[in-house]
Amino acid sequence: MNDYQRGLLGKMDEYAHFVYKITKGFPKSELYGVVSQIRRASVSVVLNYVEGYARKRPLVRLNFLEISFGSLKESKYLLYFSSVEEYLKKDDYIFGLRKAEELCAMLWTEINNLEKATKK
């Protein structure tokens, strides 16, 4: 991994911890619903990224990065859903949304770079 990739990994880790922190205040009735789903999605972002970099073949790595991106989009929607349901403070929603959008941009760059490299 290069510095950009390690930086992205660190931001993904921070995002997952942020999601765990905010969901502690969600209604107990959502423990097996939204809380479980958003936590799994946010951790899946970083886990699939790490697993992708553990793979030797670039196309396999690309698949894991795309799964990571999909989980990121899922968690981003769940932040929105949680905001609408008022499980989340507005400031936390805005912060989480900004983090998710930053990660989306960085991960999309990583995916595009790897796609270009595999087509050579």
Report on this model:
It contains four helices and no strands. With 120 residues, the chain is mostly helical. Helix 1 (3-23) packs antiparallel against helix 2, helix 1 (3-23) packs antiparallel against helix 4 (90-118) and helix 2 (31-53) packs antiparallel against helix 3 (58-84). The longest helix is centred in the last third of the chain and has 29 residues, at 90-118. The mean pLDDT is 96.
- Proportion of residues in β-strands: under 5%
Tally of separate helices: 4
Q: How many individual β-strands?
A: 0
What series of H and E elements makes up the topology?
HHHH
The CATH homologous superfamily is named 23S rRNA-intervening sequence
Q: Report the CATH C-level class.
A: Mainly Alpha
Decide which structural class fits the backbone: mainly alpha
Helix content: over 70%
Q: Give me the CATH fold name.
A: de novo design (two linked rop proteins)
SSE layout:
Blueprint: H1 3-23, H2 31-53, H3 58-84, H4 90-118
Q: What is this entry, summarized?
A:
83% of the residues lie in helices and 0% in strands. The chain is mainly α and 120 residues long.
